[in-house]
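User: Okay, second chain of the day. Same drill as before: sequence in, structure tokens out.
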Amino acid sequence: MQHELSGVEQMEPQQLPHFILDAFRRIVVHYGQWLAQAEHQFGMEKAMEIEAEVWEASFGNQITRLGKTLGFEVAAGRPAFLESLDRDTASVSSKAWPSTGSPMMVSGSRRSKKDAA
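Assistant: Same drill. Structure tokens below.
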């Protein structure tokens, strides 16, 4: 049985991690559906152009809101704590990706999973 809550303020502390991860999942699913529909309507190249414009226009708002929700400072349009990461910490994260960076990036430009194969 689900209990309807009107906001995070009413949640028990043990509910917050689940709430945050569920919200993140929903964002990822929504983004994937949006991009798939843009590709269907406009083709991949145009969809990626649109995505880049949307990202530029919306990321600042998204990261600021996320920072307020999770309690981290945003500086220069990104989480301030990222500025203090050392190479060891960053290298642990990068080892999960192929030598090109992330599976969607090559030489600083995005590409499709099909292109990555």
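Residues 16-42 form the longest helix (27 residues).

User: Thanks, on to the next one.
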